[in-house]
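Example 9 (inverse folding). The structure is encoded as follows.
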C-alpha cells in the first residue's frame, strides 16, 4: 500500500490541517507518517499544564505522540530544528531555528526519512505557509526540495479555501475574536483563492479523531478555546473538508472532491 507522509511545522499543526486525511488514509490501510520540523518551543503553555521542571517542548513532544496515534500514524518524527516564532520576532534570528536552516541541509534530513519509509505521497503547506508563519513557509520550501531529492512525485499543499472558510464562519455566525491567539491565521490573507485549489477531501467520517487530536494538544488548546468550545455541528461545518493545492498550479479550476489524494 502507498505511504503518506505529512510534513508540519509545529506540534498541533497536523490535527487541523491534515488530520482528517491522515485518519482516512490509515483507515484505508495506508501507512501514515508524521514529520514535524520543530518541537514548538515558542508556544505559550496554558496555565498549570506543565509539570514541575517540565519544559514546554517535552510536553509538546508527548502531545504529538498521542495525537499521531489518534490519527493512525505508524510513526512520528522530528526534524530537529527549533521553533522560529512568529514572523518579525527576535526568535527568527536564532541560528538553530527552522527559519534560519539551510534549505538543502534541511531537505536532505527530510529526504532521508522519505526514502526510509518509501513515501509515495507528501503533504506540505502552500507557498506562504497558510498565513505567513516563517516555519510554515520553510515547510513548503524544504518539502519541495526533499521530494525532489527523494523522488516523491505526489506532493500536495495543505491550504484553506478563503471563500469556503469565510462562508462557513458567516453561516455559523462565528469567528475567532480579534486578539484571541487562536485567531492567528484567520486574516484576509490566509489560505488561497478557491480557484487555485485542486482537491477537497471530505473528512466528516474522521471528525471524531480529528477533534480528539486537537484536544491532545492541551498545552496549547484548552476546552475554552475557539477550536474546542464550538459545537460539533460548527466544527464539522468549518473543518469537515480539507483542501489541497498542487505546487506550481496557477489555477486548479476549483477543488474536486476526492476520497483520498492521488497516489493513495
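The amino acid assigned to each position is listed next.
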Amino acid at each position: 500500500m502507498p505511504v503518506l507522509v505529512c510534513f508540519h511545522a509545529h506540534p498541533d499543526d497536523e490535527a487541523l490541517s491534515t488530520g482528517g486525511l491522515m485518519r482516512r488514509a490509515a483507515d484505508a490501510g495506508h501507512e501514515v507518517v508524521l514529520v514535524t520540523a520543530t518541537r514548538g518551543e515558542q508556544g505559550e503553555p496554558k496555565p498549570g499544564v506543565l509539570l514541575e521542571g517540565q519544559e514546554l517542548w517535552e510536553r509538546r513532544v508527548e502531545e504529538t505522540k498521542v495525537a499521531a496515534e489518534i490519527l493512525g500514524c505508524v510513526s512520528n518524527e522530528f526534524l530537529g530544528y527549533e521553533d522560529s516564532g512568529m514572523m518579525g520576532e527576535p526568535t527568527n534570528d536564532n541560528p538553530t531555528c527552522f527559519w534560519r536552516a539551510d534549505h538543502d541541509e534541511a531537505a536532505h534530513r527530510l529526504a532521508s526519512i522519505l526514502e526510509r519509509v518509501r513515501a509515495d505521497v507528501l503533504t506540505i503547506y502552500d507557498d506562504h505557509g497558510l498565513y505567513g508563519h516563517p516555519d510554515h513557509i520553510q515547510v513548503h520550501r524544504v518539502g519541495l526540495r526533499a521530494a525532489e531529492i527523494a523522488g516523491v512525485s505526489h506532493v500536495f499543499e495543505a491550504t484553506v479555501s478563503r471563500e469556503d472558510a469565510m462562508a462557513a464562519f458567516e453561516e455559523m455566525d462565528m469567528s475567532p475574536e480579534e486578539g484571541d491567539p487562536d485567531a492567528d491565521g484567520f486574516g484576509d490573507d490566509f489560505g488561497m483563492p478557491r480557484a487555485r485549489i485542486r482537491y477537497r477531501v471530505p473528512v466528516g467520517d474522521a471528525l471524531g479523531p480529528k477533534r480528539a487530536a486537537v484536544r491532545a494538544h492541551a498545552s496549547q488548546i484548552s476546552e475554552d478555546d475557539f477550536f474546542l468550545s464550538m459545537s460539533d455541528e460548527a466544527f464539522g461545518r468549518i473543518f469537515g473538508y480539507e483542501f489541497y493545492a498542487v505546487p506550481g498550479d496557477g489555477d486548479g479550476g476549483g477543488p474536486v472532491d476526492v476520497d483520498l489524494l492521488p497516489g493513495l
